[in-house]
Amino acid sequence: MVKIFALSVLHKTDAGAVWLKSAYDVQSFSYFQRGSIQEFMGFVSKTIVERTQAASRQSVKEGEYLCHVYVRGDGLAGVVICDQEYPSRVAHTLITKFLDEFAAKYQPHSWPNLQEKDIEFNQLNVYLAKYQNPREADALTKIQEDLDETKIILHNTIEAVLERGEKLDDLVTKSEGLSLHAKGFYKTARKTNSCCTFG
Amino acid sequence: MRHLQGGKMDVSVIHSLARNTLINLIEKCSGTKLIVWESSISGPMGLIAQYSLLKEMGVIKMYPLRTGPLLENPAEHVIFISRPKLHSMDLIAENVHESKKTSGNSKQYHLFFLTRNSLLCKKRLENRGMLGSLTYIEELNCEFFPVDSDLISMEIPEVFGEYHIQNDPTTLYKIAQAIITLQKIYGPIPRVWGKGQAAKQVWDLVKRLQRENNLEETFKNNQTTSIDQILLIDRSIDLITPLATQLTYEGLIDEIFGLNNTTACFPADKFKNKTDRVSESLAEAKETVILDSADALFTDLRDKNFNAVGAFLSKQAKLISAQLEERHEISVQEMKVFVQKLPNILANKNALSRHTAIAESIKDVTDSFDFLDSLQVEQEFLNCIEVDKANGYIEDLLAQKAPMIKVLRLICLQCLTGSGLKPKLLEYYKRELVQVYGIEALLALNNLEKVGLLKVQTGSRQYAVLRKTMRLTVEDTSEINPIDISYVHSIYAPLSIRIAEQLMKNGGWKQLQDVLGLLPGPNVEDTSNIYNGAISNSALNDAPTVVLVFFIGGCTFAEISALRFLSQQENSNVEFVVATTKLINGNTFLQSIIDIDNKKTVSHGI
Fold first, then answer.
1. What is the ipTM of this complex?
2. Is the Cβ–Cβ distance between B79 and B34 less than 8 Å?
3. Distance from CA of A184 to the nearest CA of B (A)
4. Hey, is the C-beta of B351 within 8 angstroms of any chain A C-beta?
5. What is the pLDDT of residue A48?
6. A146 and chain B: CB distance < 8 Å anywhere?
7. Which CATH superfamily, name and number, covers A4-191?
8. Average pLDDT for chain A
9. Cα(B378)–Cα(B384) distance, rounded to whole angstroms?
């Protein structure tokens, strides 16, 4: 089952990564574990961003989880933590998307000075909820799905059309039958040719 | 009608001309129309104009010409289209009088003659008090019907009978006029060959008409011509070929089911799917199929000996099967291409299905003992085996009271291949025939004798000599990959086509003088018809010589297939086009001779 557990926006500087905003979905974990998992994810996100070069993407496997990270050239970084089944392409598209929105909302020059409590970015939560179902949310996946479905329908339709009229196999058999039993028309007279001839 | 354009002599021109003539005439009457067709015409006219076209011109209904009152109809004009036959004139008079009784003067009546006005017919109409009632009496000049891209037919069955039995040369005049029309369309024909009395008379008439109407001047101005040579063949020089059973695909369709104006009717049961077959009662159901060169599969199959058809269909089936199998392993883009090809593949599959059903229907007949026994006797006769004594199989047929035409066909073939029957044998057969079939046999025999299909031996064995010199019978010829025209009858090469073959090979009659001497009637040779240096299209660009072979009295599909075979030979530089007064097979040919005195068929046109 595909699941996203966390979305985070961070700012990477030479001094390290500063965590700006996150959204978590830890419903699947038991009540008591939730707090510590959240913390753990926060820590993982920070570490990963620090370890990722600017202007690059990475996907790191951590136990059962997959962390997708994208650090932009201007220092803004996004992390998505999800399970192994979640399509990585969708995850990266998601990161690009919410980073773009964040950058539109908060000017780049303000990033070094932002405090977490000042930031209002509910979009993260919205995206977290929406992208739980990658198929619905992501246009590209949706199109691929539709395409596959169309292909199957097309295939079935062609089959149906071909079934119409006489079956091709029947025709193959019938025509073979026609050619197998074809005796030469002249053979019928041959035997009499060899005996008496007149005139 | 795109398929008519394929050949060197563009038949679609004839089609358009005929169609336009018909349209112009019909449009002379404005308002709703009812057309009454004489029965022999409606079929061939279908080759020119479909009902949908006529509907566009205001034709609301069409009826065949017959006795009895014309059915109630709201049309303003009633158009009769008929050949100039006295019997038809009587029917028309009857129809008009009856119609006037019911509808008074609300309608206009017209008569279009196919193809020329006839003084005699007009007189007859006058005698019936009709002349005042007919508003337009016009000529519908449609001399040839375009059957296919290399085949045109006048569709007049009585030509042979009228000329040879009734000594009525009127149809020859019609044929001469038709040839002049052809020259007007395609240009003057520089070289003319012919054999037989009818051929000579026709050509003499053509020359006379050309002189009388000063056509030579008009033709001289023609710079190009599509037809290089014409070969006129009088049917009476080769009566054997129509009597031999045709063994080509198209020939067998005509022999067994009848192929008229490219349409044939088959029993429907082979055309249904396995599931449908059991549920319906199919005894009377018929499937009508159009067979011409627009059907690509038919074009491939039509000239083949029937024994080669199965293998070809089988190959086609496998080809289509392979094409369709592709669909399993292709990507989405390839699928788009596949879907575009699909209608074509499906059309091929339908054609395959249709022709497989037809072939099966034919096979039912050709596998029957009846057919094979007859064929064996035929082939014995063609090989001059036991032609001098009463044939046991024929006697069996008589004892079983088989259809008279079938028996007559075999007896005539025996007579021709034996160059006549011994007097005692002929008497014997005649007696048996009358005993079994009654007085109608006597009438039939009378006509057959007049035509030369039945005669007494005179001493010279012409057929035996011809058989050797012209190689009419060929042993062991391949039916599947033929090398010689004899494949059309499996062992017998049509005499008429051998003559054409030799003529083309030798470039003239010179080397064939001995052979020609054995055949009845004079030779025709005219190598400077309206010679004005008219450059033939073929001479201009090294294309094959176009030779029009004109059969006066009828020709069979097997003969046409044989000519096509010759055209397709690698070393041949000739392209044959066929014109005929009628498409015939052995049965229809004999029937037209037997029926010649039947007034319904007699034509009186000039």
1. 0.70
2. yes
3. 7
4. no
5. 86
6. no
7. Longin domain (3.30.450.50)
8. 80
9. 10
